[in-house]
Amino acid sequence: MSAAIETPGVHVASSVRTDAPPAIVLDKVNKWYGAMHVLRDVDLQVALGERVVVCGPSGSGKSTMIRCINRLETHQEGHILVDGIELSDDLRALDAIRRDVGMVFQSFNLFPHLTILENCTLAPIWVRKMPKKHAEELAMEYLTRVRIPEQAKKYPGQLSGGQQQRVAIARALCMKPKIMLFDEPTSALDPEMIKEVLDTMVMLAAEGMTMICVTHEMGFARQVADRVVFMDRGEIVESGTPDAVFNDPKTERLKLFLSQILRGH
Amino acid sequence: MSDITANTPIHGSSAPRDAPMATTGPIAWLRANLFSGWLSTAVTLLLGYLIVRAVVGIVDWAFINAIWSVPLSPTGVAQTQVCRDLQGAGACWAVVTEKHRFMLFGTYPYEQHWRPAIVCLLFIGLYIVSAMRRFWNWTLVPIWIVTLTAIGILMWGGVLGLPYVPQERWGGLPITLILATFGLAFAFPLSILVALGRRSSLPAIKVLCVVYVELIRGVPLISLLFMASVMFPLFLPEGMNIDKLLRAQIAIILFAGAYLAEVVRGGLQALPKGQYEAADAMGLSYWQKTGLIILPQALRLVIPPLVNTFIGFFKDTSLVLIIGIFDLLTAGKTAIVEPAWQGFGVEVYVFVGLIYLCFCFAMSKYSQGLEAELNRHRRR
What we know:
- Chain B: Pfam families: BPD_transp_1 (PF00528).
- The structure holds 2 protein chains of 2 kinds.
- Chain A is 39% helix and 23% strand.
- Chain A has a 6-stranded mixed sheet, with helices on both faces. In chain A, strands 2-1-4-5 form a 4-stranded antiparallel sheet, with helices on one face.
- The model of chain A is unreliable at 1-8 (pLDDT under 50).
- By secondary structure, chain A is of the alpha/beta class.
- Among the domains of chain B are: 42-101 and 330-370, no CATH class; 183-325, MetI-like (MetI-like fold, Orthogonal Bundle), CATH 1.10.3720.
- Chain B is flat.
- Classes of the chains: A alpha/beta, B mainly alpha.
């Protein structure tokens, strides 16, 4: 991966829309697991079309933070606004948010008892109430975009990890989300499959999708991120452009983290 | 990394080979597994001898020396002396020939036996249709309603020119099939709701489900049946009476429901958390998530223990004998109370046992096929 840092791909042009209201606002968000304080006063604003990469050591709260955004985890203090709607116990608001926020997991989480096509059409049919035929056309379109239309009739267990993750991306896209969350999408993959998934994500970024991506793929961060956020022990420690964060770390914690990442690869 | 590359020959990477031959014919198999040494040969011969003796004995008893019918005395009493003279050397199948109608249909009026006979066939037809995946849609609902209505009309009568037969006179196989079918048809959905309730985030529902399961599981089925038959009527207002069979049926449903709920819960727990999260993240509602993602996977996982419990309950319906309901087993037992037939219990129990075996074996075979079929997606 160090090679990717030295020779990053062509940077994807920024599509940040500063004129529109922010897509996501986290305002002094706090969360505890029992006595453990896992998110501490997290403040983050993501503009429409902005691509944010979140990095940090394991246990730093980065996954917890993005899982709070579609309420797979609940926060105890502070406010989270997605697309102008505040996350609360109001289930109707939550449904509206989840319809517009796609998520890709580290472990893919495809539904093993459904075919690839059924995985992709399930939510459009049941949540968006789309006619089946229309949903299937849409699914085939996205499967073509992630370059696996020929696997549509297979079951997830018959695909490689990289293919499964691309299906997971297509499945999320079938809901035509406004925002995509990626929770370490390449961490469970064999090295030779990481690139195919990252390529898909770069393609998505180039289309102007608002994205928050938890990843350690520094090459990807440099290529697509408008902003890199570094988290440690539940706090946002530094944030800035990829260049500023990677080349000119201000804090000891970030310096330590970067040196470990580079040594690791 | 570099070490491995250095030691691995770059050239000569061979084409994929076939797996080595595993089988070498029946003779070689026999020699390797049964006659590999003197001890193994001795054990093989000894066991072979015992097996042959046992098979010959059973064939002698059940077929060669067996008596299939006995004459009736002028007063209509079976003359079973021939059977008694055998002194156990052969089976007296005459008891089955003579008494099979009583065993199958109990005390149901003799000239009306065609009605419970059709009921049994209707039940079997219902099982076969329900087992076919082709019918796994809404058409099954009217099929069940129509069949069960027909069964009710046939058993009770009182309409369409059929004489009325009170429930106290029903007996035999129809009772067993009624108890088992209604029992499992209601207990299974109940168990799914209870299993889901036990994992609910709403404390009241959760506590209710836990209490139900623990309470029902904590007492024997027999005591539940007693309660249903003796205690329950005491709580009913004067003059109101619920049919004894229905009370036993409810006890069986509640009992089976508690056991099945724990089996289903096992399946729910075996599913990775990611499946729930992926469904949530897509915006599926609770019931969509449960019906489309969770249950289809969880129930497939627990087909073996589920069918195990089904088979267990099919046989447990025979416990209703203690509250005086004439199911198949009780009818068989009663058939040999008559002095002429006393002492021929083995033949009767073999006959009744074979009927139970047919149903249970069919369930078992069907579930194996279903398991293979539904878990297709796990094959590579």
